[in-house]
Every structure is written in structure tokens, then in C-alpha cells.
Amino acid sequence: MFTEVLLGLVIGGLIFFLVQRSRNQVLKIEDGWWGAGAPPDGEEDVTIRPFRVTTSDEELKDLYSRIDQTRPVASLEDSQFNYGFNSHYLLKVVSYWRNDFDWGRQVDKLNQYPHFKTKIEGIDIHYLHVKPKKVPDGTTAIPLIMVHGWPGSFYEFYGLIPLLTEPSDPDDLVFEVVCPSIPGYGFSEAPNKKGFDSVCAANIFHKLMKRLGFQQFYAHGGDWGWLVTTNMAQLEPKSVKGLHVNFAPPSKPGLPMTLSILLGRRFPKLFGFTDVDIQRLYPCMEKLVVESIKESGYMHIQATKPDTVGRGLNDSPVGLAAYILEKFSTWTDRDFRNLEDGGLTRKFSLDDLLTNVMIYWVSGCIISSMRFYKENFGKGLDQPHSKIPVYVPTGFACFPNELMHTPKLWVTQKYRKLVTYTPMVRGGHFAAMEEPQLMAEDIQKFTKTVEKKKQ
């Protein structure tokens, strides 16, 4: 009996030691310099400067001239969006862009929120900083940083921001929102040196939040924003009060995940699998492989030779629009591939879609945005951040049409303090833009849960 108790204490102590050791793991990074040339002597300029999106007749004249010079190519009969962006429908989109789309009006819409720029590690960082107009007595606004992905931009959050800063329900929390552009995206300056990956972006955004006076804050992200905010939680877990994501592909399959794949269909309850999990995870293997190939070609290009194809997209607005908008079709719903118009306006307006394209066009950022894949995948899949669990309270919004389905069990392998896991009723990859109301509700639910536990 004594031996059994002693053995139990030893095993329990070993488990406790291993858990505590993993909890003490913190991602480490040295500060970088991403400006041109060598860093200057002296301290970096930390001035925060107001910024406004602008346009000009010359900018529009150049755009229209390039659109007018495009050379149409006929799509194959009955091909819809299965070969990429359907050329017949592209003519309609381009005609609207050339003749009806009002960029000046959209610029005014972009400027409805305050924009700023500030130098961090040698490059200009662009961000929105939206403070609530009214905060209930006895409360304070909750700081929240929201990070976009590719081929999106800060504009993805324009429908979500007012729902968080001016909620209609008096019982809802009020947020103070910061939306930065990842360096190399939108109006953030592109790094001038090789090696700028998600961890570097996370480090810069920590500096941004501290410069704005936030020692603790919440973070939300999808697509690349998921990884950047996850890295933020790994770098400084005491600064990130809570992490909310709507994309969480497994970074490193472990034994529980492997067993769940092998046995989950036969013993779903053993792994906590729901009917939705079974439906999403167990089509025939051939279908899974084919679907992956169909939707990942862009990634292989951007992770290897982004500058080559990027140069063509940087010169051709029509090519750029086709390349970007095709993702807003198939990543919103894969079945949209079988529609002549790609289902684009079923979930988005052409004005909103083209505004996102215009952010890429006028800033000339398509190549630098694509390089982010090269910098992240070029270092291999076995990076330090892939081995470190996240112990920051986490919420996961599981949208049914996301590119990759992640069951709750798989999410907890990385995010050890999973506070909420919400199966959403609808929505795809660009969830914040497609379903802002659902996203706002889930961010509210998650943050309220975390705040209540802290109290």
C-alpha cells in the first residue's frame, strides 16, 4: 500500500513538474530593424502621427487606363469558378469597377475612423484606433487588438468595429479597438530585409499596444491574424488577457490528434466529436486530398517565389482583382465554385470587395503581402512557436465553411485554457467581414466569461 501511494506521488509530481515547465515556456525574440540600411544612432522616433487615406485624379486616371488596356480571355464553357475566376463574370466586375464604383466615396468611408502611423523597428506601422463614444458609468472600455490576414486588410473589421465600440445591448461590454495593418500590408510599410515573420509582427504589435498605453489587452485574429495574435500570447502571456480566434489549424499533430483521426469515426464520444466533426473530418481520403490541392496552389507560389507572380499583379488591376476576389468566393463557400458569379455578392457587396482590392492597389502592397508566406514557411514547419502551448484564456469561433475544420480536442492541444468553443451557424473564412454580428456576439461571450472568472 505504501509503495503504491509513493509511486502515485512520484507520478503525480512528475506530471505536475512537466505541466509547470510547459507553462513557463515563453516564446523569445530579439528586437529587429526592418528599415532600409543600418539602424541610425540614437533612439527611434516614437511619434504617433495622424494619417488619412487619400486619392487623386491622377491615381484614378492611371487605374482606368490600365483597366482599359486589359485583354479579355474567354472562360471554358460550363467552367464556372472551377478554373479560377470566371472571365465572363470578371468582365461584369471590371465594368462596375471602371464605370460605377466610387473610390472617393469609399475613401471617405475608410476615413470615418481615426487612422495613425508610428515608427517601430524602422518601419511605419499603420493602424486604426477607435475609442467608444460613450462608456457606462463605473466601467472602462476594454482594449482589443484585431489582426487581419491575406488577402484581407484592416477593412475586414469595418462592420464589426461599431458593434464592439457602440453595442446596442446595455449589458454588453464596450471595447476600445486597435486594428493595425501587418507590415507589408495596406498602409503599413513593408520590411526592407528578409526574415520578417509572424513572430516579428507579434513583437511589433506588442510595442504598438504599449506605445498606446495598454499594458494588458485582448486580441482577436483570423487567417494570419490567428498566428500573429497567438504569437503575441506566447511572447507576453501576462499582457494578453484573452485571445479570440476563428482559425486554428493544428500546428503540430500529437498523439491525441493522431488517435482521434484513426479512431474518431468509430468512437466519436471518446474524443468528444460531434456530428459536425464527423461530417467535416471523414469524407473519403481522396476528397480531402483533392480539396486541399484545389485551394492551396496560391500558397505554394507565395511560399516559394512570391516576387515573380506578384510583379504581374502589381501592374495589372484586373489581374489583382481576379487573384484576390477568387478567394472571397471559394473561401466563403466551396460550393460557390459551381456558380457562374462565384457567389461573390451573396455575402459581400461589390463596393466592399473592391475597396479591399483598392487598398492593395493604391498601396502597391501585393508583393510584400505575399512575401509573408515565404518568410513564415521558408523557415520550416518546426518553429519554436509551434512547440509552445498557449496558456492565455482562449475563445474559438468555429465557422462551418472555414477552410479547415478544427474539433475542440484539437484546439485544446495548443490552447490549454480554452474558455469557449462556439460552433457557428454560418460563415466562412472571412468571418469578421461576412458575419460581423455573429463575431461580435462571440467576442462578447468570450470576454464576459474571462472577465467574470478574473473577478
From TrEMBL:
Q: Which residues form the Epoxide hydrolase N-terminal domain?
A: 48-157
Report the family membership. Answer: Belongs to the peptidase S33 family.
Claim: NADP is one of the keywords in the record = no
BP-aspect Gene Ontology terms? epoxide metabolic process
Q: Which PANTHER family match?
A: EPOXIDE HYDROLASE 1, EPOXIDE HYDROLASE 1-RELATED
Entry function: Biotransformation enzyme that catalyzes the hydrolysis of arene and aliphatic epoxides to less reactive and more water soluble dihydrodiols by the trans addition of water.
Q: Name one Pfam family in it.
A: EHN
Question: At the top level of its lineage, which domain of life is listed?
Answer: Eukaryota
Which species does this protein come from?
Answer: Seriola dumerili (Greater amberjack)
- InterPro entries, A to Z: AB_hydrolase_fold, Epox_hydrolase-like, Epoxide_hydro_N, Epoxide_hydrolase
Membrane topology of the entry: Single-pass membrane protein
| Any single GO CC term annotated in Swiss-Prot or TrEMBL for this entry | endoplasmic reticulum membrane
Its keywords, alphabetically, are: Aromatic hydrocarbons catabolism, Endoplasmic reticulum, Hydrolase, Membrane
Write the Enzyme Commission number(s) for this entry: 3.3.2.9
Q: Where in the cell is it found?
A: Endoplasmic reticulum membrane; Microsome membrane
Which reactions are catalysed by this chain? cis-stilbene oxide + H2O = (1R,2R)-hydrobenzoin; 1-(4-methoxyphenyl)-N-methyl-N-[(3-methyloxetan-3-yl)methyl]methanamine + H2O = 2-{[(4-methoxybenzyl)(methyl)amino]methyl}-2-methylpropane-1,3-diol
Subcellular location, principal: endoplasmic reticulum
Q: Catalytic residues?
A: D223 (nucleophile), Y373 (proton donor), H429 (proton acceptor)
Query: SUPFAM superfamilies, alphabetically?
Result: alpha/beta-Hydrolases
What protein name applies here?
Answer: Epoxide hydrolase
Which molecular function terms from Gene Ontology are attached?
cis-stilbene-oxide hydrolase activity
